[in-house]
Sequence to fold (393 residues):
Amino acid sequence: MKYKTITLKRGKEESLKRFHPWVFSGAIAAADESIEEGDLVTVYAHDGTLFGNGHSQIGSIAVRMLAFDDTAIDEAFYANRLADAWRMRQALGLQREDNNAYRLVHGEGDFLPGLVVDIYGPTAVMQAHSPGMHFARDIIAQALTGLPGIRNVYYKSETTLPYKAHLDPVNDYIIGGMETDEALENGLRFHVDWLKGQKTGFFVDQRENRRLLEHYSRGRRVLNMFCYTGGFSVYALRGGAESVHSVDSSAKAVRLTDDNVALNFPPEDGRHRSFAEDAFKFLDRMESDAYDLVILDPPAFAKHKSALHNALVGYRRLNAKALEKMPSGSILFTFSCSQAVNKEQFRLAVFSAAAQTRRKVRILHQLTQPADHPISIYHPEGEYLKGLVLYVE
Fold:
C-alpha cells in the first residue's frame, strides 16, 4: 500500500527502533507537502529504511504509529486488532453473567493509538483522540459489530479530538441505537450516561479498586468525594458500610449517584446521603471524626506538563484537608488520574500532606489501572491512574 511519506532526521529513529508509537514533529526532516491532518503516512529513516505506517496529525505528536512494517491500514487491519483486544478481554474473564462493562480498546496499550472503546452490554462507546481515528470511525464501527454481542456503536468524540483540527465531530450512534443505559459491574447495576456524561459515561478504570474498597467498608462511615456516578458509594453500601455520603460539585452527578444507589438498594435502606457541593468547602466544614473511610478520586488536576506544579499543590492540599479530620484507625483511598503526574510525584504529594498534618500513615496498597487498561511495554506513558490506600493513626 502506497501512502504519503515522512522522513526522519539522522539520529531521530531510536525511539521507533524501540517501538515507541509516537513520532514528534521535531524529529522530521522532510514530508510530502500534500499531507493533511489524519492522513495515513509511511515513516522512513534518513537512509530510506522503512519503519512503518501511521496516522499524521498537526502538533508536537506528528505521527501515531499503527504498524511497524508495511501492513496496510484497512478494514482487515482494524478487524484483526479489535479481535486481538477482544480475545484478551475474554482471557481476563470480563464478559460474564455478572459483568458486562469494561474497556475493549485502550489506545496505545492495545496498539491502536488515538482510539478508546468501552463496552456497556450490547453497546460500544467509541472515542477518537486523533483525526486519523475520527476518519476511520465507520470502518471501526463495522468491525466492532462483528464481535460477539455488540449491536450498537455510539461515537462520542466532541471533546476528545484536537480543536485545531476543525473536524466538528457529532456525538451520535453510527450503528444501532439505545437499547438500555444499564450496565453490570461485579453484580452491581449502574446507569451509564454515554450521551451527556463524562468520558464514555462511566469510569470503568476503577472497577478493581471499587471492589477493594468494598472489602474495607463493613461497619465504616464512608465519605466518597468527587463521587461522579457513585461507583465507590454503591460498592461501599454492598460491603456493609454503616453510612455512605457522596459529594460532587455537579448536581447532575449527584442525581446519577442517587439513581444508581436506588438501582441496587431499597428506599428503606437509608444509609446513603448525597451533597452537591464543592469538595474543598465540604472538607472545610466537615466535622472531625465524622468519617473513618474516605475516598478522594478527583478529576485530572493536570492534563498537561505545564500544570504539573499546581496539580501537585492541589493533591497535597486536598489530602491534607482530609487527613487532618480523620480519626485514628481510618482508611484513605486517594487517587490521581493525571497522566502528567507520575506515581512518584503523586506519592510525594501525599507524603507531604501526611507530614503537614503530623499523622502516622502507612501504605496498605499501591493501586493502578486494571488489566483492561493495559500499558504497552513500549509506551510507559500509558500508565495514568495512580492510587494509594493508607491506614491513618
